């Protein structure tokens, strides 16, 4: 569930497990073998063409029943259905329900993970003491708690929020931890030697260094949150798009099911894009901060 | 006493203390939802060693393994193709971007439609979800191979299969492993979710059933097993990765 | 054996075009050790890449044994400057050396013998099962040279191979090159920015101009062999040659107030 800069992904770096604690490095490798200066067709032409081509093949295969129409409705059909749905209030209610669970859960996770991570990261003995515990709890799949959540909170929004929050805490916690611990020791020691106030220490030295990590954590947690929100809706029946998808499938409403899946994909893609851009901004700013001589 | 020793002591002592504390604090628990830790552990032993091991753990692991391996093979193969051609990867980029952004659980009804309620559905879903991190990382690993290395390979006329086997894949392997690690945790998640939605056996199914029949200690035993599984899979993966990528760690250390 | 005929390389087009290499011609005969030296940034690496078939020239051609080069020729081996990035870190020294030999379809014994001999000629016997990261920079470069030697090419192209090592290691590596040349009788084309080195090693020195790069002149090096780091460099002829080349490359340095 990590972000991507095109297919030249700064997706996951080796050595550090789930995601690179350091935000992506940015500059993609130069295209090899290109003759500079030669005029090329616009960059979006090829991808768009391929996408349309694939859809066209799908359409054809479906209409001629090469792909059984019952399971693979033609794109025109389900995109049409999607357009219809956009006009209904129930659709938007579902979207709102999903996003509400996502937002509240994520907000809770931020409120818990960031301060916790900041504290643990800056107090060395706390870090050591909790390291094994965190390492053991981290790989626990949050979805394993779905039945527990149902037991505690029933099948409504609260269950969803609980699951989203629980799952989203971990990436944010880890990123905050890494961020706080990655602070340039030279900058920190210099600041300390000047005996600046605690407040300034935090805002001028630590915070700028941590922000890129926070944004990376937010990006990862955001997609985790979406996954858990949809999971809760699907498994438990909490209101939202996931539940609508399940209902559509159970009712044999295949085109609606496809349309809704496309919607979730678009939401996921949209969130990802926005947050990746934010991440790049934060990194750019961070890099320029660092370039300006490190300490104050 | 120096920092290092204190740190090490803390690292070991603290988790143990927490565990002990939990055990003690919950020992007299009358709560329905939070049975004593000792009871959970006893139930764990009774259930998973080895009464329900064959009926639930084995099918779960089978589906997990099959889906994961299928995904890795397909993803690495596709990644090699995409990684070798900037044009092709640019062409399919929006499609890949979109497909990987779909929250995996949303695909389960789709899987149900096509495959019904069997192992096939679960393996297919797990595989579909796990493909993306490995694919993207394979492409990234191949595209970021050192140009000098590639020039050397070209200068010596090393091509085709040999080049793939001896240069491209080993060179991209650190990235590929990183992707495989992410996919492993995804595989576990999707295994559980698919068993929560539509299954007649499996660890996830067991946890759900226990909850529905209010067999709370059993539910917890299942949750603990899933946690343990997540942890063990990670550990095993890291051990394998460290062996295979020993050269990478050393080379990086030497370069610094 | 190797002919460069009217080679040109232009980057970009129209008004933004940069001519890296102008009309450049020279030849290298069998068994010769030829150095190429020129002012900084004069496109020596570009030249080498064109000569080795890694890069296509804009005009002119390069011929090996009379046949034009369109891609990296089989009878040619290359040693790069950044040795650490040309060795595969996941293979041992032996593995690295064996890789180019696979296409030669040698018997196991022959491969083993070739590798052993090449490793011996660079003085790294006993390190065959080491990994590159276990070796120093100078040793890694020797591995790269040994790899090229085991390949037994007709001609060896070297792109500033000793630029990244310290001076003493460089002196050792220069002597390794001389020993290797004597032992294998191999033809070498050696690109460097170090004028002393170019004279010390070579039979002839090709002096290049600034961009657009062409051949300024070709200097015969009639110093006696075997060469020695101290005694050869004490010879007045050595000083004369290096001074001559220095002036050719950096005429401004002399005109600006030095004694000519």
Helix content of chain A: 55-70%
User: Are there runs of chain A of 5+ residues with pLDDT below 50, and where?
Assistant: 1-37, 292-296
- Could you tell me the number of beta strands of chain B? 0
Q: How much strand of chain A?
A: under 5%
Distance between the termini of chain B: 31 Å
Radius of gyration of chain A: 23 Å
Mean pLDDT of chain A: 80
- The arrangement of helices and strands of chain B along the chain is HHHHHHHHHHH
Q: In total, how many domains does the architecture of chain A comprise?
A: 1
CATH architecture of chain A: Orthogonal Bundle
Q: Report the top-level CATH class of chain A.
A: Mainly Alpha
Instruction: Note the beta-strand portion of chain B.
Output: under 5%
Encode the helix/strand succession of chain A as letters.
HHHHHHHHHH
Low-confidence stretches of chain B: none
CATH superfamily of chain A: MetI-like
Structural class from helices and strands of chain B? Answer: mainly alpha
Query: In this structure, how is the largest beta sheet of chain B organized?
Result: none
Give the class of chain A from helix and strand content and strand pairing.
Answer: mainly alpha
Tell me the number of helical segments of chain B per DSSP (H or I, 4 or more residues long): 11
Helical region count of chain A? 10
- What distance separates the N and C termini of chain A? 36 Å
Write a compact overview of the structure shown:
The complex is a heterotrimer of chains A (296), B (256) and C (260). With 256 residues, chain B is mainly α.
Structure description:
The complex is a heterotrimer of chains A (296), B (256) and C (260). Chain A has helices at 45-63, 75-85, 89-122, 124-137, 146-153, 157-181, 185-193, 198-236, 241-250, 254-291. Chain A is mainly α and 296 residues long. Chain A has a single domain, classed as MetI-like fold (Orthogonal Bundle), CATH 1.10.3720.10. Residues 1-37 and 292-296 of chain A have low confidence and may be disordered. Chain B has 256 residues and is mainly α. Chain B starts with a helix and ends with a helix. Chain C is α/β, with parallel strands linked by helices. Chain C has helices spanning 44-51, 93-98, 108-121, 137-150, 167-184, 195-201, 231-234, 236-249, 251-255; strands at residues 2-11, 18-28, 33-37, 59-64, 67-68, 76-79, 155-159, 187-192, 204-208, 215-220. In chain C, strands 6-7-8-3-9-10 form a 6-stranded mixed sheet, sandwiched between helices. In chain C, a hairpin with a 2-residue loop joins strand 4 and strand 5. The radius of gyration of chain C is 19 Å and the shape is globular. Chains in contact: A-B, A-C, B-C. Chains A and B meet through helix 1, helix 4, helix 5, helix 8 and helix 9 of A and helix 1, helix 4, helix 5, helix 6 and helix 8 of B.
